[in-house]
Amino acid sequence: MSWEYLGYLASALLVASLTMSDVVKLRWLNLAGCIAFTFYGLAIGAVPVAFTNGLLAFVNIYHIVKLKRQQKADAE
């Protein structure tokens, strides 16, 4: 597998995430893109790409948890 394809997939996921009007869907797609870019960065030896997207993945996880907790609190 050419690592370029993983980079293109990661880019497509990030672009698709920004078309979402639902913030939770945006975060999930963005998380998938960040994870893909993290692996891509590691595969090609681009540590800044891997590091930045790894951190952004954690930011997305934080916001997903926060949004889910807020939805649960609103339901109660």
TrEMBL record:
Domain of life from the UniProt record: Bacteria
Sorted UniProt keywords: Membrane, Transmembrane, Transmembrane helix
Transmembrane segments: 37-62
Protein name: Uroporphyrinogen decarboxylase
Organism the protein comes from: Pseudoalteromonas lipolytica
